[in-house]
Task: structure prediction
Amino acid sequence: MDFRVEEASIEQIHAAFKSGDLTSRKLVEHYLRRIEAFDRNGPGINSIVTLNREALSEADRLDRMLSETWILKGPLHGIPFLIKDQIETRRIRTTFGSKAFENYVPDADATIVRRIKESGGIVLGKANMPDFGVSWYGVSSVLGDTLNPYDTSRDPGGSSSGIGAGIAANFATVGIGEDTAGSIRVPSSFNNLFGIRVTTGLISRSGMCPIINFQDTPGPMARNVKDLSTVLDVIAGYDKEDSATSMSVFSGSLGNFRSSLMGGELRGSRIGILRDSFPGHDEDVSLVMGRAIHTMSSNGADIVDPVEISDLPARIKNSGLYDIQTKYDLNGFIRTRKGSPMKSVEDIVSAGMYHELIDILEYVSRGESLPEEHPEYYRRRFGQNELRKAIIELIVSSGLDAIMYPSARILPPAKDDIRGRKWAGLGFPVNSFISSHSGCPSIAVPAGFTSGGIPVGFELLAKPLDEQKLLNLAYSYELVANPRRSPETTPDLA
Result:
């Protein structure tokens, strides 16, 4: 096969399908070979929990359809996906990262998975995540440690750990992660990927294990912005099974994210630099961020440096509901799973069926049975509204298109530091709470690499439902910066 699968985009793959240079079966087979060579063996990235045994037969059906009709089933025809193991998949084991659910096989697809399949996508496998998604790290009781393919002594970030590592290592074309507090954007930044957290409610959460229902959102993670936009066209929109998606009808770009994608949008844009969120001591992050800001400026962006969200640390602290809401939402989901082996987070913690480094699960288990009865509940919900108001006020009053800051104030952490519990609970130094607590959309963009080859990423934050603007800015940056680089630990296969 002459076609290079590694780093191939959806557009390139579809062109190869039509020319006869590639079939969906050959594509799936190649990814399976890569998983065997580099995930199971070699560097042992350890990102895939379960492979779909029907992936090749699904690829064969799609190949027959194309050969008989010369028509693609949809915009994702024959494209292999990795799905975060937080999202239910019919007839494919879904563990939520937990040993307690290692034998759980759903009898229905989550809405997002159903839409991917209806558009021709293939679920290749389920990707690792920390137990129930409540950690920043790539560890789980069901699979163990996932490694960062750019430096296997480092972590890929969480909680969409397996998606970040697996898509970076070219184990599939694109991936679906989930983001409550940064779980798409942190692993995207730590693995040289693009990932978007949309306005909450733009994408259905039906069939997805929750952390905070009104804060959760799934989303795509990809090696380029075109693929990100193509997937977003398929998965975004109203779903009767998730009432929060009623707001999606107000998006002016729904179904047209890819067709509306434009380069050259840096020129004339105004980008505010949120200096208060930059690291105080990590020079590597600051240096790479400085180069990214210079690239934007030299390509026509008007850089407003600095901008400020008043009392930001206090606003973040006073708008977090992890200790109040998560137990209630997670228990409601667990107890309604058909054949669920556990009925509550307390059961799981009592049985010790979670990874020892997932200390946040213990914290969650002590949460509220009825969140509204907590004395801080309404004040913190109000705090989220106030944070959103402050962000919108800054963007509007300063005439900004987006606010820019590093996704994390440190490099991907060393596994030894994680095992040594250098950061406890929610104290991991990330900036992703800004978007998560406000409900405003943000996109993770690869900034570049340190001199030692470690990825650094930044976020662009915009007003609610401004996803198209974020995609256009990220795409414009991608075209001029060319920030994507394959990891050396997982080279092309012969």
